[in-house]
Amino acid sequence: MPNDRGRPRRPETDAAILGATIDLLRETGYGGLSIEAVATRARVTRPTIYRRWPDKAQLVVEALSRAVPPAPAPDTGDTRTDLHHLANGLVDRLVRTGLAPVVLGVLADSNGRDDLAAPLRDLYLHPRLDTITDVVNRGIARGDLPRDTSPDTARDLLAGPLVYRWLVSGTLTHTDIDHLVDTAWTALSRPARSASPRRRSPQPG
């Protein structure tokens, strides 16, 4: 059997495999997807897939990453507006591609599965969360946010409630998004409270 590990990858083969992966995720979810089913749908062999991706998790994460690539950080000159654009834009992209249920399903399936959680975190989530970090760092630099603002905390305050609301309710309107971003902004833009000075006890005499 010929071995073509050293041969250049054919873009059309990659596209067929990734497209088949997305189609099967829509139909069966992560748990029901198999490399064999992807190979059959893409009309390639299983070794063809394994030469490109070592396992199902890596294949699924790349398929999602290509289908919904991260958007560049908006820069309107106002950090609060940038965060609104960023959050609404991300949701719009997921809704427009019809992949919102797929992404949320894969996120849910990654719970307790390190083989999926690690690549999903490193290759899908972090590049998108890094966009929030870019906007927050720019906001700190221009004085829209306090200097001691933690970008990690900002990412949690912004992304966490959006994902939670979507998972629990199954839908997310622009009104919901704007409310959640405004709530996060109120917390982030509030100056840190300094510790109250301790009152000295009155001295006798």
From TrEMBL:
Alphabetized Pfam families for the sequence: TetR_C_11 (PF16859), TetR_N (PF00440)
The entry's keywords: DNA-binding, Transcription, Transcription regulation
What sequence ranges are listed for the domain HTH tetR-type? 11-71
Matches recorded under SUPFAM superfamilies = Homeodomain-like (SSF46689), Tetracyclin repressor-like, C-terminal domain (SSF48498)
Coiled-coil residues:
none
Recorded hits in PANTHER family, A to Z, give: HTH-TYPE TRANSCRIPTIONAL REGULATOR RUTR, TETR-FAMILY TRANSCRIPTIONAL REGULATOR
| This protein's name | Transcriptional regulator, TetR family
Keyword Transcription in record: yes
Q: Which InterPro entries match?
A: DNA-bd_HTH_TetR-type_CS, Homeodomain-like_sf, HTH-type_TetR-like_transc_reg, HTH_TetR, Tet_transcr_reg_TetR-rel_C_sf, TetR_C
Is Acetylation a UniProt keyword of this protein? no
User: What ranges are recorded for DNA binding?
Assistant: 34-53
Q: Which Gene3D superfamilies match?
A: Homeodomain-like, Tetracycline Repressor, domain 2
GO molecular function annotations of the record: DNA-binding transcription factor activity; transcription cis-regulatory region binding
